[in-house]
Amino acid sequence: MLQYIYDGSFDGLLTAIYEAYYRREVPDEILSEDSLQQNFIVEKIHIETNEEKARKVYMSIKTKISEHTLRNCFYVFISERPDRGTIIYRYLILGWKIGKTIDQNLKNDSVLIVHKIRQKVSKEVHWMLGLVRFSQLKSGVFYSHIEPDNDIVGLLAPHFAERLSDEYWIIHDVKRNIGVMYNKNEWIIRDLNISEEISFQDGEEDYQKLWKEYFKAIAIKNKINPRLQKQYMPKRYWKHLIEK
Amino acid sequence: MEMLSKLKILSDAAKYDVSCSSSGSNRKGKKGDLGSTSECGICHSWADDGRCISLLKILFTNYCIYDCAYCINRASNDLPRAAFTPDEVADLTINFYKRNYIEGLFLSSAVYKSPNYTMELLMNAVKKLREEHRFNGYIHLKAIPGADKALIEKAGMYVDRMSVNIELPSDEGLKLLAPQKNKNAIIKPMNFINSRIHQAVEERQKFRYSQSFVPAGQTTQLIVGATKDSDLKILRLSEALYKGFRLKRVYYSAFIPVSKHPNLPVLASPPLVRENRLYQADWLLRFYGYNASEILNDEKPDFDLALDPKCDWALRNIELFPVEINKADYYLLLRVPGIGVRSARRIIDARKFGMLGFENLKKLGIVLKRARYFITCGGKHYGIKSMDAPSIRNSILFNSNNNSAGEQLSMFSVYPQLLTQKDIISTITGEL
User: Fold this and answer.
1) What does pTM read for this prediction?
2) Chain B residues 368-397 with a CB less than 8 Å from chain A
3) CB-based contact, A231 to chain B, within 8 Å
């Protein structure tokens, strides 16, 4: 059994796929360093990330398969599944074989799993576009904290950069200790740890109170349905919501 | 805090309006403006009744000159009243929006002083939001029946969606429960908005710059169960509205008894199942290519409450089934109970790469609970032996009852028993 080990970055994964092709090897698994397990019967090859090689694979997916496929790979990558490298690798092998119609071939398990993951990640992105809750800090910055299952802050940023283009805002992924920050001009993602106490702007509490009141008043009492509510808005997201 | 009690009163008064959708408008954000809209809409929360919260849904005021029996805000009802100012509405909307609580504003109102006076108040509030606060998010505005055309037209230039609520599906209903209103006052503004929307669409094709008008289209709402109107009558009305006025949506609201009036029916609980069936049928009209007359007819003017309308249709047309999954065209696939738009597309895509078997369908995520009675996969049938409607019906009902017994029970307590005890026993023992 042959394993390729990459450094955990998207470029690293693409480099591994590049190497597999040019070394004429077919690794059984492509894993990132952090999801490694000790196993003596496995031959491990460490792949050094190379931007140039990664770019070549990137372009090859885009032109020889499709942009859609490229996006799918990215979505699978940010799902952070331990087997994401292997899933993407098998999917792409097939993609280079049959071309841009690959995404219709849902009968194939390698394609189907990619679509299932993509669906799941997209769903969470869409959820988060609605469930992010900003509070205004003393400095005027709008701050929010979330804990998504997938590493999606980068997919949320363009939406809010367009919507709140004239505000400073931060979306903090407290699970991964990263945050996306916007300065009225452009956004960046970087490591983020907040240790000092957060103080809010005057009036922030009033708006939170108003929102909670609205949330309570808008429900029709004869139709209360907690099961339906949980189905639409999973409970794991509740702790970052003001109204819950 | 005065604002808190106002918001409480005026959102409480607005909650019976079902619509909360923020879809249909796709507007990019602009530097210097606040907000953008998304084509498919975004839900921001779900209230305790499971309904999505997308917009800040409030009445401008609940002072009303009308006394409609079905309505909580009727003049004769003794309840706390309040009114916002345009500035208060703008401040709430902007600050909720910046905190990402909402996707925009849904502003409606009771009729204060006169229809024109009210419409002008509403128009000023949205004008303020758009022009002074440069708010570029979603706005859904109610058009007040009886208001001047010019006012409605002016308001329409600022908002994404407009709606006029029909509420009662027939003229007799109106006379009985809302004698101060008449059908004409409701239909007229709908007709006007429709023609203006399409004028704007045509202008947009001809000129580079043209004023938009209600780009997300208009909607309406019907109350179900406050009058004796049959489901067929309601569905025919919806069909006519979709075809005649090109409405984006018709919403249905199960009547919730908010008052005791001699002309109102006495209901133990709101007819939620009926509301659900109407929505299902509505989807069949809009996305599945059905006609109202296929779904219901004069011999059968009301829905089967135990079975969804598509299943019901399939059972009445059982001679068309089973359908071969690998051969049927898109529209035929759509007619199979349990197969929706997405499933049908997936089947069509996937079968290009080889025959699909039952296991393949399962893996594609197609719900086979009902579909299996109506399809064959490569000639093989996975339903029950006979293809006759009553046995399939029993089989479907018996299997689904296991899962949601709680719901079914509460439904049966409101409506006459549909499945008699004997039927249930016969499906268990398998003899008819």
Assistant:
1) 0.88
2) none
3) yes
